[in-house]
Design brief:
This protein has helices spanning 2-44, 48-60, 62-89, and strands spanning 99-100, 113-114. The chain is 69% helix and 3% strand. It has one domain (29-114). The protein has three helices and two strands, in the order H-H-H-E-E. The chain has a two-stranded antiparallel ribbon. It is mostly helical.
Length: 122
């Protein structure tokens, strides 16, 4: 009788704690995603220069791409690199990425935007 009662108590405890364990395991996953996002943006920030040259060339022509496209690329390179460093330093706090798109190679034809700093992930 005592063995059965112990086993039922263990099973009931397991069922009551399962939802909490499931949410606890997602926290390390969110930290890992933010850490990977930070390292990737820190390393690949320089790819913003050719990306913005291509965007400026398609929209306004080669002369504009050679001047404003390069300058815009340099600014976005600095922004993506600094956001990557911020994500790397604060990876313990699972927030949404500051840079959109998350990686430089995602949607290569879209200009980089910034926003949503410190919005916690659901």
């Amino acid at each position: 009788m005592k063995q059965t009662l112990k086993m039922l108590l263990i099973i009931a405890t397991f069922f009551f704690l399962t939802p909490y364990l499931a949410t606890a395991s997602s926290y390390p996953a969110k930290m890992g995603v933010k850490l990977g996002n930070g390292v990737t943006n820190l390393v690949t920030g320089m790819a913003e220069i050719p990306k913005n040259i291509m965007i400026a060339n398609k929209s306004d022509g080669p002369a504009y791409a050679a001047t404003a496209g390069v300058m815009t690329g340099l600014l976005h390179m600095l922004g993506r690199t600094l956001c990557g460093a911020t994500d790397l330093i604060t990876f313990m706090i699972p927030t949404k990425p500051i840079v959109r798109p998350n990686y430089v190679w995602q949607n290569f034809k879209q200009e980089t935007t910034y926003g949503g700093a410190w919005e916690l992930l659901p």
